[in-house]
Amino acid sequence: MNYDFSQLNDKEFEIMVNDLLSVHYGLKVDRFKPGKDEGVDGRFFTDSNKEVIIQSKHYLKTGLNGLLRVLKNTEVDKVTKLKPERYILVTSLPLSRVNKKTIAKIFTPFIKSEIDIFGNEDLNDLLSKHPRIEEKHYKLWINSTTVLKSILNNAIKGRSKFEIERIQRDSLKYIYTNNHEIAQGILKEHNVLIISGEPGIGKTTLADSLSLSFVSNGYEFISIEESLSEAENVYKINEKQVFYFDDFLGSNYFEAISDKKDSHIVKFIERIKNDDSKKFILTSRTNILNSGILHSSIFSNNKIRNNEFLIEIKSLTDLDKARILYNHIWFSQLEESFIDEIYFNKRYMNIINHKNYNPRLIEFITDIDRIGISDAKDYWSYIENTLDNPKDIWSDCFKRQNNQFVRALVNLVVFNGGSISEKELKESYSKFVELQMLQNNSHTEKDFESMSRLATKSFLKRDNFYGEIVYGLFNPSISDFVIYDLKDDLNKLKKMFESLMNRKSLFHLRSIEREEIVSKVITTKLKEYLFEQSLVNDCSVNYSIDLAFDLKHNVDLFDKILLVVKKVIKEAIQVDDFYKFLNLYNLVEEKLEIKNYDFLLDLLSNSTIDESDIKAVSNFVESRNIGSIEFENFLEGEIEEYLIESLDDVKYEIEIGEFIETHYGGYDEVYHEINKENIKEEFYKQAQEMLADFEEGLLKNYDVDIERIVESIDIDKLVETFLESDSGYDEESFSRYNNSSSSDIHDLFERS
Fold first, then answer.
1. Which of 223, 253, 337, 732 is the right S-S partner for 376, CB 3.0 to 4.6 Å?
2. Residue 287: phi, psi to the nearest 5?
3. Partners of 472 in beta bridges
4. Confidence label for 737 from pLDDT (cuts 50, 70 and 90)
5. pLDDT-derived band of residue 700, with 50, 70 and 90 as boundaries?
């Protein structure tokens, strides 16, 4: 495997060289902290206690001529003053025989032989002989051509392949901190890791790196976008797979919980925990995860935090922050005049110590394509403004992007929850341009293809997901900016949501309403407008039902709700949330003049119903004394199926630990006393509580064998799983004492 070592910055290159020469010479090489090296990056002593000096020169950016110039003008004087017994020079640049002779002549008599000059080819030869060193330097091999080929082969087609390519490209700027080591330990032990933290703190970056590490070791990579069914469809028994669910609760977490997806997630977590051939990596914003746990008994009772590693900015030492900044500068395309502005008067310390420091901001201030500044003298003001006002990091980008059509595309993706198919986006964009009466003399200015190409250069990403083109946000912080910018503009919001008019955009509207990003007054007016427009524009009936359900307390809308209910009954339309339909039916029943309820079975046969729907239907049937045998047979089958599935979920809601006594003997012996009968009794109580939610008059028509279902639960397996997952982690083990001083940081930023 041949490297050009461009994957490493100059400090990382020095560390690798010292590690490599240590094993090559079979002795300890003293390593010195970064700073004014005075010609010494490493050293060791001969048997006669004479000093041998190692000097590493990366110099990929300046090339061979730059290296020779520095060696002649600077380094030879340093070596002469040091007068070592022997001098070893290492560079990442390829060296010919003539090049080595030239270098040896410069450093006569300290370079004893050309064998003490190591170029690119020599380093690669040594790495091939010492694979342990190669493996240790993560960024080196993870970006190699061979590993990249292996990584791409281990990604399923579509979005997963696109994601792993992105992760591999971004890995150059990754800094391996204590967070990585701890998170990897949790993942290896439990197979599941939930990374939470505030926006921009580095959740996704850490998750990316962990995924890349496992994929490079032969794991198949599966990126999950919205549903765990994506993962379940490609789950392979006894094959190494890593599942990656970024922002797994997302902005629609209330919908996820209300639709019982919390149970789905917990089940999948339990499945992965017991399968050592699998890994499951999830990320979530702290506030969303906390709200999810607060509103979900399944999340809370299953101790989902047992697998959580909380990333907080305090977990980064000042030296970690410095290394992140240094690495971004090294791999940036910033001109030297711009970099000088950061080094002037050690301004990098202002960045590192800023209260709003986070890795995402560092990425922004070092990305030349997003800075939009031509004169270096304006660069420091840009950095200060960005750090002082992090919520406005996209403001300048939007202001500079005076193309209203590009902004329209970005806004549509944002208000659709952050992702949308190309087909939907094209239709919504066309409608928005029409509604806003956007005018431009150029036809191409309004052309979707040309505008989408412009948008993907700065704000959007375009993925191929199983043959379907999907647009998403380049960075989630774009959504924060757009929503905040438009939250009080009711007219603009009306046009935006009217252009989308799908359930996903409505879910997103509910989410930002619950998080109080947009006021209740505005969202109510917006929903009323959208409901009326949904009837005029002949939108999806389920979209209208969702809106009507949210507005059901508005008696002025009952006539319009009546129209929706009539249409569902007349056309036997498939209803996604049946309980909502029945709720609306109850509101307008007096005006319907229904003579029989045969229509109900037709609707139910066309719809997929869940727990909430079954309870609503059973209450409806009992309250109206519908004695049809068809209804009884249908509901009996649905309730039986519901009970079987729900009782399976009960095991995640019972505190198994209350029925286990742990005893400690001599010589670290541990044994557990388990009361299985009490566990079964608890299951039985839970089952009775479920049945209590149904009307007694309906349930008396058939007998539910709860005891049989409880007996079918594998108590032994449940206890075993609990004991394996109950060890937990001491929060103090996550902390890392910040023992770095400002001098260490200054040494890191020392320039040759």
1. 337
2. -65, -35
3. 419, 461
4. very low
5. low
H helices of 143-285, in order, are 145-153, 159-170, 178-190, 203-215, 229-232, 253-258, 261-273
Angstrom CA distances, 321 to 309, 726, 740, stand at 19, 34, 11
More confident residue, 573 or 646: 573
Q: Which residue has the higher pLDDT, 294 or 429?
A: 429
Measure the CA–CA gap between 722 and 302, rounded to whole angstroms: 10
Average pLDDT, the chain: 81
Q: What is the pLDDT of residue 440?
A: 52
Residue type, 350: N
| The pLDDT value given to residue 739 | 46
Separation CA 548–CA 532 (nearest Å): 10
At 714, give phi and psi (nearest 5°). -80, 90
3-state helix, strand, coil in the chain (%, to 5): 60, 10, 30
User: What SS3 class is residue 452?
Assistant: helix
Place of tokens 């907080």: 312
Whether 5 has a pLDDT exceeding 70, the answer reads yes
C-alpha span between 165 and 157 (Å, rounded): 12
pLDDT at residue number 147 = 63
And the tokens for 685? 């109580």
> What SS3 state is found at 56?
strand
How confident is the model over 360-384, as pLDDT tens digits?
Answer: 889 889 988 777 788 999 999 999 9
185 contacts: CB under 8 Å, gap ≥ 6: none
144 — pLDDT class (breaks 50, 70, 90): low
The pLDDT assigned to 542 comes to: 93
Residue 275 structure tokens: 């399968």
Task: Please return the burial class of 442, using the count of CB atoms within 10 Å of its CB with bins 0-12, 13-18 and 19+.
Answer: exposed
- 139 vs 32: CA distance, rounded Å: 21
CA 255, chain centre distance (Å): 19
Predicted pLDDT of residue 33: 60
Collapsing DSSP states into helix, strand and coil, what is residue 652? coil
Q: Is the peptide bond before 109 cis (omega within 30 degrees of 0)?
A: yes
Long-range contacts of the stretch 26-29 (C-beta < 8 A, 24+): 29/54
Nearest to 338 by CA among 309, 288, 379, 370: 379
Number of alpha carbons in the 13 Å side-chain half-sphere of residue 314 = 5
How far lies 452's CA from each of 447, 477, 720, in Å? 9, 19, 53
Two structure tokens written together for 339: 């970099």
Q: Do the Cβ atoms of 713 and 683 come closer than 8 Å? A: yes
CB hemisphere CA count around 127 (13 angstroms): 22
CA-closest candidate to residue 199, choices 138, 289, 67, 66:
289
C-alpha distances in angstroms, 117 versus 110, 123, 231, 676? 11, 10, 52, 71
Q: How far apart are CA 180 and CA 494, in angstroms?
A: 44
Number of Cβ within a 10 Å radius of residue 164: 25
What confidence tier does 326 reach under pLDDT thresholds 50, 70, 90?
A: very high
